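In the design runs reported in the main text, the only information available to the sequence generator was the tokenized backbone. The following block is the verbatim input for one such run; it is reproduced so that readers can re-run the procedure and compare outputs position by position.
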């Protein structure tokens, strides 16, 4: 054992030549030679975080404060074959530091060096990015780390064609670290990355730059552009490759995907196949979820990237070398290998994907022995002294023992012409960079454009929402973001349009119920994809009041509104009219202007399921219009008030109209269990037929008694009677189910409904029918007007009374026939036993005139013309003739003629004194009837009368 003590070892470490001419030179903020690099093992690669080096370092200070190293930038220089002064730098930040062992003031430290990108693993976030490309998003994430302590954040893009990368509608970082989020985005777009290192100037420790590229053209040629396949020996002027082997792996050679695009209402399929697939096709079919790409060209590009990532694994080459300049994203030309020397220049050019470095510093034997004696061997496993003879056929170039004892690497390459893409799926089919999956649902707040816009939507029934995990000026948690980004403004400037689920959604039909601004909604996600939310329901929130419809919490964070249900179960006597079970259900809308207060006009459909008091109400506060069916209660929102009756009520304070195109029945005839056709009018039809029979019988009797109007048709052909027959036919008409037709098509367009056969009552023309078993009343303090274009038939099985406080005027254009069959006194049961026709004027006169025809008064019995208080005048311009049984008295001109077949007797007390004369006027007033010409013409054609 060598005789080393702490003082001698410390002197050796502090010696001026400690770092000079060393293979490994470590620079830290602690100062020169404070830490001496001992051994290093590390990996640098395309993707996978870039690089990670673990090294041991020696120091004569066992009390170094590890926190002075954490996060600090350090640089490890590696001496290369090209120069002893122009060293290869590895710059990074200390992410782990440990004092492994110490003895007598001397210590060994373990240090892990990683790029600034590693810091992104330790920050998790949830954030929305809208209308940004992958470049914009990644730049924004990286910008969060600039000017943070000693981090040297540098990056650049090497993109062949930027315009093929779309502006993303919405991209969500959801409960994932910044590193995982960025790595996922880059992999999705087929972008790779690596780091380039630089030595600092003027005492600066240097820097490392993240390079992000989408093509192999961004790879640079290795410092040693041509590398020989040769044994390793200290006498060689250039570093060489000692082991080289190729490998092939069977891979999927065809990819097929299709993504549903609801905007185009179609699935967008894309497919890619390897050109060298031959007759053996191994296809991987997948569903990337809804709206995976906007255009087929985008889908083809993404699938092409995925296939290139698989093809990269078809054939690769691995080796072992002493080439200290090997670095990922560099290319070199292989020489001296018998399997490749005959290949073309392009096929001998390779791109490095990953390098695993193993090195130990070139300490002299004295220092090495002293460190080993005091601190033991380092934990990093390195094997340099093993020499294995093998044949050249095995792919090794070790014709004699390997004499390189301080540096070795293992590396992976592919031919430089093979496009590099990051692999997205591992060997088990699992995604290497999985997108966060959302299991279950979340709630969110509907957002809009401002306080005066209670509804914010687009033509396609979509809304915008803000999730509770977003942070910003209007966030649910009222928390800002550390980077100052306003990711929760509670306004539509951030947030994608989100579809709203409906119970029915058809072509111009379905349910339309949009959640309004401030409402809390339930959100689910297509395929669990955080970027594909769908609103599936609205939620009540807050705390409702026990005796009112409003909420104790009217508003909350993120412009949310407190929304309590309009109908609820009231508890306790204090609730009064609200103290009932949860019997109300239905739909209630609210005027837009009162969306956030709930105290404006509304429309509602309410079902009251109180046992024995069920009802349905359709109402609006506009003109207080309502249709109420069932048990009527005074209802004011949730309050059940006094009873109002039973049945159906249709009411409004404004105008109302009932319009039907094929007929309307208003009936008070009950249908037992409502089993009949709803238009069934059996009672009305029977009564109409009875009226027709009665009218026909009376008309026949009148014509028999010669009471018809001149030219009148037979009784069964009279217009009014034919009208009654027609009405009876209309009421009895039926319709077969298969013959139903609609506005836009015939019944043949619709498949017949199964389950029943037969016909139903259906009026054959637009007819309005009133029917009641106990009476119909029309009452008004004002006018009643009844007008018909053709015939009006009023038929009563008993009496018709027309009392009037004022006058009754009957005007007829063609003729009037008043006829009664009459009856003997006492035959009827009515109080009025007077039969026949009676004209009575309690006051005033009775005038009968035939202005252009004769007047005939005839009776089977006695005719009496009498005046109880005045005279009876009989006047005629030509003569007056009184005759009976052959005798007559005739007044004609200026003479009186008296004739009798028998004796004529004159009796009286008057003395006749000669003849005298007088004159009388019996001119009738002129009353030519003109009437309404169109109405008169219509009536004449129909053979009816005009009143």
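Verbatim output:
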């Amino acid at each position: 054992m060598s005789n080393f003590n702490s003082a001698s070892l410390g002197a050796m470490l502090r010696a001026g030549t400690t770092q000079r001419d060393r293979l490994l030179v470590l620079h830290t903020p602690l100062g020169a030679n404070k830490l001496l690099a001992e051994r290093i093992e590390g990996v640098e690669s395309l993707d996978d975080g870039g690089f990670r080096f673990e090294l041991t370092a020696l120091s004569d200070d066992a009390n170094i404060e590890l926190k002075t190293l954490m996060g600090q930038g350090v640089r490890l220089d590696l001496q290369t074959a090209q120069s002893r002064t122009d060293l290869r730098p590895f710059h990074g930040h200390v992410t782990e530091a440990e004092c492994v062992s110490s003895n007598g003031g001397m210590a060994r430290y373990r240090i892990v060096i990683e790029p600034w990108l590693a810091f992104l693993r330790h920050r998790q976030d949830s954030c929305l990015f809208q209308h940004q490309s992958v470049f914009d998003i990644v730049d924004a994430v990286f910008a969060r780390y600039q000017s943070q302590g000693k981090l040297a954040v540098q990056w650049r893009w090497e993109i062949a064609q930027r315009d093929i990368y779309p502006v993303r509608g919405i991209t969500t970082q959801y409960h994932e670290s910044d590193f995982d989020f960025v790595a996922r985005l880059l992999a999705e777009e087929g972008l790779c990355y690596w780091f380039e290192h630089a030595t600092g100037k003027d005492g600066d420790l240097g820097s490392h730059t993240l390079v992000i590229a989408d093509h192999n053209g961004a790879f640079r040629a290795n410092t040693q552009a041509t590398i020989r396949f040769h044994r390793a020996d200290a006498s060689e002027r250039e570093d060489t490759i000692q082991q080289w082997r190729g490998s092939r792996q069977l891979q999927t050679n065809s990819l097929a995907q299709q993504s549903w695009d609801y905007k185009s209402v179609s699935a967008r399929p894309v497919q890619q196949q390897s050109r060298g697939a031959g007759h053996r096709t191994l296809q991987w079919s997948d569903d990337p979820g809804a709206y995976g790409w906007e255009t087929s060209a985008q889908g083809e590009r993404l699938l092409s990237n995925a296939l290139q990532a698989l093809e990269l694994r078809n054939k690769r080459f691995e080796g072992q070398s002493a080439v200290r300049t090997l670095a990922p994203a560099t290319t070199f030309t292989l020489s001296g290998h018998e399997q490749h020397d005959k290949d073309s220049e392009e096929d001998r050019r390779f791109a490095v994907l990953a390098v695993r470095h193993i090195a130990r510093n070139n300490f002299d034997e004295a220092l090495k022995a002293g460190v080993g004696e005091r601190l033991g061997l380092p934990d990093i496993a390195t094997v340099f002294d093993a020499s294995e003879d093998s044949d050249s056929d095995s792919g090794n170039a070790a014709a004699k023992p390997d004499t390189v004892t301080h540096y070795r690497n293992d590396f992976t390459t592919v031919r430089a012409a093979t496009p590099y893409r990051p692999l997205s799926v591992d060997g088990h089919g699992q995604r290497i960079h999985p997108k966060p999956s959302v299991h279950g649902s979340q709630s969110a707040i509907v957002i809009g454009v401002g306080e005066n816009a209670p509804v914010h939507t687009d033509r396609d029934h979509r809304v915008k929402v803000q999730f509770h995990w977003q942070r910003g000026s209007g966030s649910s948690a009222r928390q800002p973001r550390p980077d100052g980004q306003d990711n929760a403004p509670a306004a539509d400037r951030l947030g994608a349009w989100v579809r709203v689920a409906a119970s029915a959604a058809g072509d111009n039909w379905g349910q339309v119920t949009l959640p309004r601004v401030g409402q809390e909604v339930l959100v689910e996600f297509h395929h669990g994809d955080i970027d594909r939310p769908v609103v599936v329901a609205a939620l009540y929130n807050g705390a409702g009041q026990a005796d009112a419809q409003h909420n104790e919490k009217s508003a909350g964070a993120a412009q949310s509104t407190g929304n309590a249900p309009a109908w609820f179960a009231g508890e306790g006597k204090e609730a009064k009219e609200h103290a009932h079970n949860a019997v109300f259900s239905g739909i209630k809308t609210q005027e837009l202007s009162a969306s956030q207060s709930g105290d404006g006009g509304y429309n509602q459909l309410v079902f009251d399921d109180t046992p024995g008091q069920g009802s349905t109400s359709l109402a609006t506060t506009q003109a207080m219009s309502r249709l109420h069916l069932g048990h009527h209660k005074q209802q004011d929102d949730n309050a059940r008030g006094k009873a109002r009756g039973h049945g159906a009520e249709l009411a409004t304070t404004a105008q109302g109209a009932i319009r039907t195109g094929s007929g309307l029945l208003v009936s008070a005839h009950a249908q037992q269990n409502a089993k009949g056709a709803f238009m069934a009018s059996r009672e009305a039809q029977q009564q109409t037929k009875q009226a027709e029979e009665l009218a026909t019988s009376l008309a026949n009797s009148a014509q028999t008694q010669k009471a018809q109007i001149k030219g009148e048709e037979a009784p069964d052909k009279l217009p009014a009677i034919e009208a009654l027959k027609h009405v009876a036919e209309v009421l009895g008409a039926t319709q077969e189910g298969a013959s139903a037709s609609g506005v836009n098509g015939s019944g043949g367009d619709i498949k017949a409904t199964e389950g029943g056969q037969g016909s139903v009552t259906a009026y054959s023309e637009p007819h309005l029918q009133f029917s009641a078993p106990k009476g119909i009343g029309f009452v008004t303090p004002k006018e009643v007007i009844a007008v018909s274009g053709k015939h009006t038939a009023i038929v009563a099985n008993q009496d018709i009374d027309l009392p009037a406080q004022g006058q009754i005027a009957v005007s007829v254009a063609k003729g009037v026939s008043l006829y009664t069959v009459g009856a003997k006194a006492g035959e009827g049961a009515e109080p009025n036993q007077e039969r026949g026709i009676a004209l009575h004027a309690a006051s005033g006169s009775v005038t009968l005139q035939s202005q252009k025809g004769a007047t005939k008064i005839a009776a089977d019995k006695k005719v009496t013309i009498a005046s109880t208080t005045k005279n009876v005048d009989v006047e005629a311009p030509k003569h007056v003739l009184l005759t009976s049984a052959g005798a007559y008295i005739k007044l004609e001109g200026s003479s009186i003629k008296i004739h009798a077949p028998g004796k004529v007797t004159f009796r009286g007390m008057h003395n006749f004194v000669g003849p005298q004369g007088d004159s009388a006027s019996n001119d009738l007033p002129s009353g030519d009837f003109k009437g309404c010409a169109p109405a008169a013409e219509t009536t004449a054609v129909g053979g009816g009368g005009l009143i």
